[in-house]
Design brief:
Layout (H helix, E strand, L loop, with lengths): L1 H28 L47 H6 L37 H11 L4 H19 L4 E10 L10 E4 L5 E6 L13 E2 L6 E4 L5 E5 L6 E6 L8 E7 L9 E11 L22 H7 L8 E2 L2 E2 L7 E5 L2 E6 L2 E2 L5 E4 L5 E6 L3 E6 L2 E7 L3
Parallel strand pairs: 1-9, 2-8, 3-9
Antiparallel strand pairs: 3-6, 4-7, 5-6, 7-8, 10-12, 11-18, 12-13, 13-16, 14-17, 15-16, 17-18
Protein name: Conjugal transfer protein TraN
Organism: Pseudomonas helleri
Pfam family, one: T4BSS_DotH_IcmK
Length: 382
């Protein structure tokens, strides 16, 4: 009985709910003037218990685009403000394989003409800028440049350097020493006294024409450097020595060939001037003044390393010091060395680097002093 009562109550409840729903539907059809129009949102009815409620969104858009600046549905307003709508876009340009967009979709604005691809003429112009000359033309230009440099460096007279020495005669009527110079080269003038010691200058040397010759002197020394930018010129140089009452005058010549058919010119890379007398730095006297053959041309030739043709070189047995040479000429021996000579000799002559030449009678033995040690040499004389 109890279960029957529960079933009957449930059926009655369901029948009453169905009747109410039909009555509400009939009432809505009876009042058509109360329906909401398009664009108005339908009123939300309070839902019954256990029912889902659907909220209708905005109405479907028509085929016309939104006005420029108007909010677009489905687009974030912040993004729309950051990127406003313009008449320039993919639809305005013709893409390869696709026609341009419909002009009616651009708010009455005509589409822009299509962009043409670059032509091959621009590539040719770029190649002309990158490589204006052919490799063969570049080689010809480099060869022409080398020929120009070679012609610029060509000299009508070629200089040959020499180291020599000369004794100065300060007496009236004597000839002046000559210094040979060439353009582009330096000539060093060394002043020595009769003992071979340096004789320093007391004042700056003077040249006759500063536009043609340049003389540089390091104060307190005995060396003067002379140069010239011009060939075929002549001039003179005046040297003022410490303690000397007479200046030394040197004749300067430049650029003259040694012969008519010879394009070579020997110049003095170093010229030692031996001035008669003892300078302020003279060495201690170990020989009499008569031993120094200041104006002996034959000793001068052996000192310069240019002996006469008839001179015969003598071989020596033993520990021969470096830079030592021995000749036999006209019944005498001529010894050229930088070492101290222990054997008796007749005459001597010195150069600026310490080299000396000695003249003595023919003998089978000579004695030198090398670093304080005596060295005796046996000579193969003729």
């Amino acid at each position: 009985m109890m279960m029957k009562s529960v079933f009957v109550a449930s059926v009655l409840t369901l029948a009453i709910g169905t009747a109410k729903a039909e009555q509400q539907g009939n009432g809505a059809q009876a009042q058509p003037q109360g329906q909401p129009t398009q664009g108005q949102q339908q009123p939300i009815q309070a839902p019954n218990g256990g029912q889902w409620v659907r909220v209708e969104g905005p109405s479907r858009q028509s085929g016309f685009p939104a006005a420029p600046g108007a909010p677009q549905p489905g687009v974030n307003p912040q993004m729309q403000n950051a990127f406003p709508q313009t008449n320039y876009g993919p639809a305005n340009y013709a893409v390869a394989g696709q026609p341009a967009g419909d002009p009616q979709q651009q708010n009455g604005t005509a589409p822009l003409p299509p962009l043409n691809p670059p032509e091959n003429d621009h590539f040719d112009e770029a190649m002309e800028v990158a490589q204006p000359f052919t490799p063969e033309q570049i080689k010809q230009m480099r060869q022409a440049l080398e020929n120009t440099r070679k012609a610029k460096a060509w000299q009508p007279v070629r200089g040959i350097p020499r180291i020599s020495s000369v004794s100065v005669d300060l007496s009236p009527g004597a000839s002046m020493p000559v210094l040979r110079v060439v353009p582009g080269e330096l000539s060093n003038l060394i002043v020595l006294d009769s003992t071979g010691a340096p004789w320093p200058l007391a004042a700056t040397p003077r040249v006759s024409n500063p536009d043609l010759y340049s003389a540089e002197w390091l104060q307190g020394t005995h060396t003067v450097v002379v140069s010239t930018p011009s060939a075929y010129e002549t001039g003179s140089l005046a040297l003022y020595l410490e303690g000397a009452t007479t200046p030394v005058i040197v004749k300067i010549v430049s650029g003259e060939p040694d012969g008519k058919k010879d394009r070579a010119r020997v110049y003095d890379a170093r010229l030692d001037l031996r001035v008669p007398g003892r300078g302020p730095l003279a060495k201690a006297a170990v020989m009499g003044p008569g031993k120094i053959a200041l104006y002996d041309d034959l000793l001068q030739a052996f000192l310069d390393g240019i002996p006469p043709k008839d001179a015969k070189q003598v071989k020596a047995q033993g520990a021969v010091p470096s830079h030592t040479q021995i000749w036999q000429y006209d019944g005498n021996l001529y010894v050229r060395t930088r070492q101290d000579f222990q054997t008796a000799f007749d005459n001597t002559l010195a150069a600026g680097d310490g080299t000396r030449v000695y003249r003595l009678p023919v003998t089978p033995f000579i004695t030198l002093s090398q670093m304080g040690q005596k060295v005796t040499l046996q000579l193969d004389i003729y």
